């Protein structure tokens, strides 16, 4: 699966797509592949604040839990409620099954994140370990 | 099939539904004697607190219940059927005499609050067991109260905290090696400590240089499993203890693997300050498919004031009693005195063995693990070549080349009539196969096991799909755990 | 040494194994233990015993331990009588029956006991509400309160106690004041330590009004046969011992936590779920394991690893035997025996806390110290009620008496007779003293 070039990526395998002050956050295809069948997603409430680099929730497979790290700071404006009953959507298409939408506190934070090309390189190294 | 090996075959294996599916009104398996006091009208006594209906509770007859549970029992694997090499769990023989004595009227039916005058037998059992365990561990004092190993960890760390507090500062952190059981960090968190992970060295042991660098006045204790989860004895244990003690830290030993040490070496002698034991591992009380356990905690003298209350004492007149006046105690960790029924069994085991039997048991456990290691080395990858004590850890590295992982091999082992080993633990070995035969296995049984494991390795080369699709011989094939977690069905409901 | 009967190897087997390994002696395999720590002597434990000696030794202990006594003690311990599918299905049935009896939606596969289940339930409420204090009823089993104090202490969780009224029920007026928007939960027991059934609906309303959770501890499982379960509770922490688990001097018992489905991910302990295999055949698995320590480590819901599976199996079989009708009859007999006994005691001494319904326990206040009365009752091979001085000094010479279906009318009458005698002799001694006073 190709990594969209209009997304930015973290080394913890989250993606973020920004449109001005508004941004959408999800986990990458690599993340869903290594987790396997996702059975539960724990997300913050609308209105709560998330901080770049800090955890804001978790995704679970049958035998693993993976923390979610905020790619940028901001306030949660919307939570993908579909995932509560259908977490498998992430396995089907990780790049369209978004987790949360946020209002960015400082859009410049995104500049320090990885581009699609850098991220792809990063995961190929990670997988080769 | 090409490899004709000696393996288990199917036996009578009835289908058996849920008990609720056999229920119908008017069937019963109970009978109470007639009331010898005047009958009462519950609605008058209880008013609105009266319950009128017990919903879906079953109504079945005695023979149906006997068959139900007997059939279910045949769907479980058990140590009485064959080798159960579940690493780190110490699935050893549960002696029959333990069960006989645990059922003696005065012991099985003793009330925890009956007067001490008529509790001398129970108190004596607790005292003698305590003395034996103190001698075996080389420690100074003990509490039998914790209900399980993890509960013992909690109790031990509560005492660590109380001790550090008494020195002026409870400190902030607990050091835990990356090879530790998950209970260790979970326990530290429950006692309000931060967990600092320590990386094992190339030999799978604590890196003393790294430990020295990590150790400081913020660290309350190091939680160490010895032998560790790789089945490796921490050879530099004395240095580890010194590093901890030099900066006022304590050495906690997770005694999960004490069955490798009994009668050969005592933790108290190599610098351990506090440790728990698992009576359901080392001391032969049954695992029961997940409990009851029992997790006594033994300590050095300076921690004795902090033991949970009550403690058993001898009064001036020679009788035994519970002592509640313990001002520095960490308090109670459970109601009453602990899993007393397990004390009876553990003591019966200790008496059956005596000093010579306990030592021979340890030697046989270590001998067996080394025999399995020898039999499978080269066939399966051995990530750490450090000497093996009571269990051996291989990895699936060689088989993974064919796409076969440790879990697949484990499932295939079921077809050969064995319970699987522990998979994917310890975490520091990717694709771990953790095998612990215990002393309860004969040479013949181990030869069968080695043959089965070698045969599976050959199957991986020739027909990996056979292994990937295993098990082939069980009542149910591989179960859909994903569906179970996504849409949990946690109780039966009548079809509507 | 002589052969040890649990070890299935002959000396020549051991030789053969050592040879295969390439070791000269068994001590080669222990070479990694530093020499200075190796134990070169025998452990000082009793010598190896024959099976008959072991049985004799424990029989002696059994005789020293109240063998053959009738008891009026309750207080949280009651006398009533793929290749793991067997255990898993049985736990699934256990979970179902616990849900059915408690009126909750989910139940776990068991906890250590009622006391730790209660403490863990409080921690669960703390996680669910994000609040950091708790209120606990003084009528909760005193040892349960002690356990909660131990657990709460290092979680920096303040626990406030609330008193009971002269019906032994929780003081609702005080509760109104104690429960605030900061309270994670209220923990009460029903039937409580004195045997009194709480007004759960009223208590729940006070807790829920402030957004606090209600945790109800049930120490006497048999009560569920005839007492309405605390359906308004958010979490139920139960001790299932009285469902056929021997008293065993206090353990092993069978704790269990039950709750609503929406809270299941914060519930500690193992859970069995139903699923199917690739052929569609029904089967059972351990599920929602990501809550647990072996996966989540320091972030787990609890450090609990084992449960009380074997004891839960006993409980399961007991619930199956008594079932829908038997459990009610059993509970009704408890109710009748306790009602009779309380009436009889009431003729000679003071039965405390009238005015609220009770199940199978009640408190009798005597003029004489209950320890003294009990030691005379013990002469009749009967263990009297539990003196409460240790736990509730404010109740004076009070004792907690428990009657179950196994308590006979004869033993009730004997115990009542002893209490009556005590009251008479105290009175006549007092009269004598008064007479002396007058004549002086």
Features:
heterotrimer, A: 129 residues, alpha+beta, OB fold (Dihydrolipoamide Acetyltransferase, E2P), three-stranded antiparallel β-sheet, B: 496 residues, alpha/beta, Aspartate Aminotransferase, domain 2, Aspartate Aminotransferase, domain 1, seven-stranded mixed β-sheet, 12 strands, 10% strand
Would you give an account of this structure?
The complex is a heterotrimer of chains A (129), B (496) and C (440). Chain A is of the alpha+beta class. Chain A has helices at residues 29-35, 82-85, 88-92, 116-128, and strands spanning 8-9, 14-19, 22-27, 38-42, 49-50, 55-61, 65-69, 74-79, 100-104. Chain A has one domain (8-106): OB fold (Dihydrolipoamide Acetyltransferase, E2P). In chain A, the strands form 2 sheets. A 6-stranded antiparallel β-sheet of chain A has the order 1-2-3-9-8-5. In chain A, strands 4-6-7 form a 3-stranded antiparallel β-sheet. Chain B is built from 15 helices and 12 strands. In chain B, the strands form 3 sheets. Chain B has a 7-stranded mixed β-sheet, sandwiched between helices. The mean pLDDT of chain B is 93. Chain C is of the alpha/beta class. Chain C has 2 domains: 85-318, Type I PLP-dependent aspartate aminotransferase-like (Major domain) (Aspartate Aminotransferase, domain 2, 3-Layer(aba) Sandwich), CATH 3.40.640.10; 324-439, Aspartate Aminotransferase, domain 1, CATH 3.90.1150.10. Chain C has helices spanning 11-21, 51-63, 85-102, 114-129, 142-153, 172-178, 200-209, 293-296, 309-346, 370-378, 409-439; strands at 70-71, 106-107, 134-137, 159-162, 185-189, 213-218, 235-239, 255-259, 272-276, 282-286, 350-351, 361-365, 382-383, 386-387, 398-402. In chain C, helix 3 (85-102) runs parallel beside helix 9 and helix 4 crosses helix 5 (142-153). The radius of gyration of chain C is 27 Å and the shape is globular. Classes of the chains: A alpha+beta (129), B alpha/beta (496), C alpha/beta (440).
């Amino acid at each position: 699966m190709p990594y969209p070039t209009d997304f930015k990526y973290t080394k913890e395998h989250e993606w973020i797509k920004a449109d001005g002050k508004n941004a959408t956050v999800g986990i990458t295809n690599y993340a869903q592949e290594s987790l396997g069948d996702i059975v539960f997603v724990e997300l913050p409430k609308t209105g709560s604040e998330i901080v770049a680099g800090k955890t804001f929730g978790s995704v679970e497979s049958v035998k693993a839990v993976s923390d979610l790290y905020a790619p940028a700071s901001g306030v949660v404006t919307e939570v993908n409620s579909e995932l509560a009953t259908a977490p498998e959507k992430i396995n089907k298409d990780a790049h369209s099954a978004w987790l949360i939408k946020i209002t960015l506190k400082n859009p410049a934070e995104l500049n320090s994140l990885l581009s699609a090309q850098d991220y792809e390189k990063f995961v190929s190294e990670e997988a080769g370990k | 099939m090409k490899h004709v090996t000696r393996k288990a075959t199917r036996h009578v294996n009835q289908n058996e539904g849920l008990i609720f599916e056999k229920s119908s009104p008017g069937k019963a398996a109970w009978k109470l004697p007639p009331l010898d006091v005047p009958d009462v009208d519950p609605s008058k006594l209880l008013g609105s607190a009266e319950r009128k209906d017990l919903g879906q509770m079953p109504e079945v007859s005695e023979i149906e219940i006997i068959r139900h549970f007997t059939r279910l029992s045949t769907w479980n694997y058990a140590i009485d059927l064959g080798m159960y090499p579940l690493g780190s769990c110490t699935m050893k023989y549960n002696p029959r005499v333990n069960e006989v004595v645990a059922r003696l009227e005065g012991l099985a039916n003793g009330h925890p609050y009956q007067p001490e005058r008529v509790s001398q037998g129970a108190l004596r059992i607790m005292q003698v067991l305590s003395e034996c365990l103190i001698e075996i561990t080389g420690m100074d004092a003990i509490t039998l109260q914790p209900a399980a190993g993890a509960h013992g960890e909690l109790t031990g760390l509560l005492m660590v905290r109380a001790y550090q507090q008494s020195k002026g500062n409870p400190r902030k952190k607990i050091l835990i090696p990356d090879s530790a059981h998950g209970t260790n960090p979970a326990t530290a968190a429950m006692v309000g400590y931060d967990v600092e992970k320590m990386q094992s060295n190339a030999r799978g042991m604590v890196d003393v240089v790294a430990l020295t660098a990590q150790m400081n006045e913020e660290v309350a204790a190091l939680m160490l499993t010895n032998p560790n989860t790789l089945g490796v004895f921490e050879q530099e244990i004395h240095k580890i203890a010194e590093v901890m003690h030099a900066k006022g830290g304590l050495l906690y030993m997770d005694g999960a693997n004490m069955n490798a040490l009994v009668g050969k070496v005592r933790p108290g002698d190599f610098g351990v300050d506090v440790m728990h034991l698992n009576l359901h591992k080392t001391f032969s009380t049954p695992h029961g498919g997940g409990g009851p356990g029992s997790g006594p905690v033994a300590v050095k003298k300076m921690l004795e004031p902090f033991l949970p209350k009550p403690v058993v004492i001898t009064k001036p007149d020679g009788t035994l009693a519970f002592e509640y006046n313990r001002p520095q105690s960490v308090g109670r960790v459970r109601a009453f005195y602990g899993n007393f029924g397990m004390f009876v069994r553990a003591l019966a085991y200790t008496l059956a063995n005596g000093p010579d039997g306990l030592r021979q048991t340890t030697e046989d456990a270590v001998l067996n693990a080394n025999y399995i290691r020898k039999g499978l080395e080269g066939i399966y990858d051995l990530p750490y070549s450090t000497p093996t004590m009571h269990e051996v850890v291989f990895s699936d590295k060689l088989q993974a080349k064919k796409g076969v992982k440790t879990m697949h091999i484990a499932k295939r082992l079921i077809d050969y009539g064995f319970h699987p080993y522990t998979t994917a633990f310890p975490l520091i070995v990717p694709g771990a196969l953790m095998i612990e035969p215990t002393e309860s296995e004969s040479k013949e049984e181990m030869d069968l096991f080695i043959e089965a494991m070698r045969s599976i390795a050959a199957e991986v080369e020739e027909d990996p799909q056979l292994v990937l699709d295993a098990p082939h011989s069980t009542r149910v094939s591989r179960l859909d755990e994903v569906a179970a977690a996504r849409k949990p069905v946690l109780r039966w409901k009548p079809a509507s | 040494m002589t052969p040890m009967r649990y070890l299935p190897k002959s000396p020549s087997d051991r030789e053969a194994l050592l040879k295969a390994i390439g070791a000269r002696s068994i001590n080669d395999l222990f070479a990694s233990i530093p020499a200075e720590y190796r134990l070169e002597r025998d452990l000082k434990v009793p010598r190896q015993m024959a099976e008959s000696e072991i049985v004799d030794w424990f029989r002696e202990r059994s005789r020293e331990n109240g063998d053959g006594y009738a008891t009026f003690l309750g207080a949280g311990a009651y006398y009533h009588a793929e290749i793991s599918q067997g255990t898993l299905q049985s736990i699934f049935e256990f979970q179902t029956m616990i849900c059915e009896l408690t009126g909750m939606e989910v139940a776990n596969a068991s906890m250590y006991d009622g006391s730790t289940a209660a403490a863990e339930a409080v921690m669960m409420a703390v996680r669910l509400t994000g609040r950091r204090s708790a209120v606990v009823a003084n009528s909760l089993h005193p040892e349960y309160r002690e356990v909660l104090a131990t657990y709460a202490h290092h979680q920096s969780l303040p626990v406030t106690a609330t008193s009971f009224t002269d019906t032994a029920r929780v003081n609702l007026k005080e509760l109104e004041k104690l429960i605030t928007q900061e309270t994670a939960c209220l923990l009460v027991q029903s039937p409580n330590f004195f045997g009194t059934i709480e007004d759960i609906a009223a208590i729940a309303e006070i807790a829920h009004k402030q957004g606090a959770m209600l945790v109800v501890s049930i120490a006497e499982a048999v009560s569920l046969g005839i007492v309405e379960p605390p359906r308004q509770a958010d979490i139920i922490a139960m001790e299932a011992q009285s469902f056929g688990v021997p008293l065993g001097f206090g353990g092993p018992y069978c704790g269990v936590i039950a709750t609503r489905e929406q809270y299941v991910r914060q519930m500690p302990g193992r859970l069995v779920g139903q699923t199917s295999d690739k052929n569609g055949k029904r089967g059972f698995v351990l599920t929602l394991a990501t809550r647990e320590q072996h996966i989540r480590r320091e972030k787990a819901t609890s450090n609990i690893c084992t449960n009380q599976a074997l004891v839960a199996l006993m409980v399961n079989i007991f619930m199956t035997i008594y079932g829908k009708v038997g459990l009610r009859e059993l509970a009704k007999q408890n109710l009748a025996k306790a009602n009779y006994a309380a009436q009889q005691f009431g003729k000679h001494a003071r039965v405390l806390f009238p005015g609220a319904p009770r199940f199978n326990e009640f408190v009798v206040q005597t003029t004489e110290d209950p320890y003294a009365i009990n030691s005379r009752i013990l002469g009749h091979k009967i263990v009297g009620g539990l003196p409460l001085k240790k736990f509730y000094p404010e109740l004076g010479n009070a004792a907690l008496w428990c009657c179950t279906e196994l308590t006979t009318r004869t033993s009730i009458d004997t115990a009542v007779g002893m209490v009556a005698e005590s009251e008479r002799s105290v009175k006549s001694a007092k009269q004598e003293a008064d007479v002396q006073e007058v004549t002086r």
